[in-house]
Design a protein that fits this description.
Elements lengths: L19 H22 L8 H4 L11 E4 L3 H13 L14 E6 L2 H13 L5 E6 L5 H11 L3 E5 L5 H10 L3 E6 L3 H7 L3 H6 L4 E4 L2 H10 L4 E4 L3 H5 L9 H4 L11 E7 L4 H14 L4 E6 L5 H10 L4 E3 L10 E4 L6 H5 L4 E4 L13 H4 L4 E3 L12 H4 L4 E2 L3 H13 L4 H13 L4 H12 L4
Parallel strand pairs: 1-2, 1-4, 2-3, 4-5, 5-6, 6-7, 8-9, 8-12, 9-11, 10-11, 12-13, 13-14
Helix pairs in contact: 3-4, 3-19, 5-6, 12-17
Length: 446
């Protein structure tokens, strides 16, 4: 897979009148949004930031670029892209900072973008906020107020209302770090003409297969391939464990292995509960760091553990865990640092057909991750990751338990794992550079 190559800037798309059938379908889509809004307001995740999501708080601010990152993971990709963007800006930005409106759906995403705003303050004027609900009329209003030179959507953020507004106003929409499964493509193709009429100006996908799927759905888009920005974010320099996290674990060394169960999804909670019980029975003195993928599941996990008679404490309590217990992690953004202390780890979203979660980060800390059978969201990593032994893939929860027990009792050498993973990743960096180049082409003043 080669990096995207430099092209002369494409002319901005002309304002377009959408086909009558597309306009009719957008009207129905807008009515559907109105119908579900009362329920969304009661949703734990979507009720927060309600006035901004509905634009009741006013229109978003003007910006050169509108960058959409769905949640925490995509927000970190946005941070990596924006960190490098100033190096690629055209001459018209000499001596001034670009203004970037960065939107997200979740509290985790907003927290990451707020940290990025502080870190990038000298080179980027970053404005984090909530992504508006994709109601066509309100998206038109939002895009008119922001007046961006481009809209960049990370991974698979295909929103009809926003794409339609971009088409109508002649604003180029870019899909960067694009991913699309065969299942998703099949769904989109039920209304293929509708999506084709809303297609983005450019797509940079993370694999040849993903690019081919985007090209089938959006044949008029300029489609190419880039390395996944996640490869650029990996840092294989040895990082010492954070003292405040190390203080949470018993001071018994190898006699009390720390096992991380990360990004666990709702659909696999019962299976993971069985893994927890098996680990506590078979690995004496183990402490298990349990990281739910979504924070609103913390109370549900507390009930599950209580009913199962599994001893646990919340991470926020700040006290050292007892050997043979669970630390229920209720602090966002610490899972990476926890890997630095782990003897073994499992990454969720992989025991149910949910596409998997990022299993590369543990490798940066010298930890061999274990996953279940489902990993379609990370097919771009390449199956070689399994044949090299850098990642363990198991068929079911029983296999995951066996693998974790083995790794916890015979811990691989961290430096050997880190070095091998670094060599694997080094051949796959450069995605952020390609994405920056595509964005910079759109930021050239007319």
């Amino acid at each position: 897979m080669s990096r995207a190559t430099r092209h002369a800037p494409a002319a901005p798309p002309a304002r377009a009148k959408l086909p009558a059938l597309t306009s009719a379908m957008l009207s129905l889509y807008g009515l559907a949004w109105h119908a579900v809004l009362p329920g969304l307001k009661r949703n734990k995740r979507l009720g927060e930031g309600w006035r901004w999501r509905t634009l009741a708080a006013g229109s978003p601010p003007k910006a050169d670029l509108w960058l959409q990152a769905a949640s925490g993971g995509e927000a970190y990709l946005a941070w990596e892209l924006l960190r490098r963007l100033p190096e690629h800006l055209p001459a018209c930005y000499a001596g001034k900072k670009p203004v970037v409106l960065a939107t997200t759906f979740t509290r985790q995403g907003l927290d990451v973008l707020e940290k990025a705003r502080e870190a990038l303050a000298e080179s980027i004027d970053l404005l984090p906020t909530w992504f508006p609900f994709d109601m066509p009329g309100r998206m038109e209003r939002a895009l008119e107020a922001i007046a961006p030179k481009a809209v960049a959507l990370l991974e698979t953020e295909l929103w009809p209302g926003l794409l339609a507004a971009c088409r109508r106003r002649g604003v180029p929409a870019l899909v960067l770090n694009g991913r699309m499964t065969g299942k998703s493509l099949a769904g989109y193709q039920h209304v293929r003409g509708f999506w084709r009429s809303l297609g983005p100006a450019r797509v940079l996908a993370v694999s040849d297969d993903d690019a081919a799927r985007f090209a089938r759905l959006f044949p008029e888009a300029r489609t190419g391939v880039m390395h996944n920005i996640k490869f650029d974010r990996l840092d294989f320099a040895p990082a010492p464990p954070r003292p405040e996290l190390a203080a949470l674990l018993p001071q018994q060394g190898a006699a009390a292995p720390f096992i991380v169960l990360g990004s666990v999804r709702k659909q696999e909670e019962r299976a993971v509960l069985g893994i927890i019980q098996g680990l506590l029975a078979r690995v004496p003195g183990a402490v298990i760091g349990l990281f739910p993928r979504h924070m609103e599941r913390l109370e549900d996990w507390q009930e599950l553990l209580t009913e199962a008679g599994v001893p646990f404490a919340r991470r926020s309590a700040g006290a050292a865990a007892r050997p043979g217990s669970v630390l229920l992690w209720d602090a966002f953004g610490e899972m990476g640092a926890a890997f630095a202390l782990a003897s073994a780890c499992f990454l969720g979203g992989s025991l149910a057909d949910l596409g998997g979660q990022n299993f590369l980060e543990p490798l940066a800390h010298g930890v061999v991750p274990v996953i279940g059978p489902f990993w379609s969201n990370f097919a771009w990593v390449g199956e070689e990751i399994f044949t090299t032994g850098l990642v363990r893939q198991e068929r079911d929860a029983t296999g995951v338990l066996e693998a974790l027990c083995g790794l916890a009792q015979d811990i691989p050498d961290r430096e050997t794992v880190r070095r091998a993973a670094g060599e694997y990743v080094a051949l796959r960096r450069g995605g952020a550079e390609a994405a920056c180049q595509a964005v910079a082409e759109c930021l050239i003043s007319e």
